User: Fold this.
Amino acid sequence: MASITASSLSAVAKTFPLDHPFLGTALPSRKHAAAAASRQRSLAISANYNLQSFHFKPISESIVSREMTRRYMTDMITYADTDVVIVGAGSAGLSCAYELSKDPTVRIAIIEQSVSPGGGAWLGGQLFSAMVVRKPAHLFLDEVGVPYDEQDDYVVVRHAALFTSTIMSKVLARPNVKMFNAVAAEDLIVKQGRVAGVVTNWALVSMNHDTQSCMDPNVMEAKVVVSSCGHDGPFGATGVKRLKSIGMIDEVPGMKALDMNAAEDAIVRLTREVVPGMVVTGMEVAEIDGAPRMGPTFGAMMISGQKAAHLALKALGRPNAVDANVGPVHPEMILASSEGGDAVSA
Assistant:
């Protein structure tokens, strides 16, 4: 098997030179790699403490428990009534939270059913690590501060986790955002034809309703709900499926077969407030509109999330980039893909 692999690689090398677009940029030389490793070693030995005789400050176990419990319960009390609830912390939900939290007066709660937020944005396609982003969505990467390799009509982030971890760290550092991990949105609060919040429960409880006795949920009221639950699945597209089951929308046809060029424009264009009080973003848009799936490209997730943020701002009566009548919009609030024309139209 080793000889087959070696011969295959040799054939590829003869067919495609190292600088051929198919193979991408040539890997750094061993000399450069050794120099980088040496710099890393130099950084490692410059610690601000003695690693040979290291002691932590003393603490009582009960203090650890009290700190976690007190802070989490305070957050639950604070966000029981909030401005915006984002359901789903995938690439669209995180992009929405990033854009929306630029306004420090807007309080944002993120509900994520998984222990680890990020959805499918930790990897590219088929467990490959690179993330492909079509232009002009690279402008959003520039703003967030994610490096990438430049190509003609797209860019490549060398590991998708670089985007996900970067945007997540910036979102969670903002004082007007709280993420509730391992929490599922089991239902919607609807009052007089308007979505007014979400019904929540621990994700593990939601998964075990059939195995236990009654385990009632909790609630979180909000002026606007942004549903970014992704495509259909155990916790996918739960927002739009619930709207259909209670008669607020007529159907959820599901996404069509893959067409990258049609899909990404459609996802951004169709991101909207589908019923009063509820904005749908990301791949959940494809489920409600029957738009094509896009596969392993992520630009539409980012720009759809941005657009959802401005639609939420519009619903809150705040300055935004989708309603010219609201008032002047600060430059940092302009959608990264606005120069793309109708791809960001409401």
In short: The longest helix spans residues 61-78. Confidence is low (pLDDT under 50) at residues 1-27, 325-334, 336-346. The radius of gyration is 23 Å.
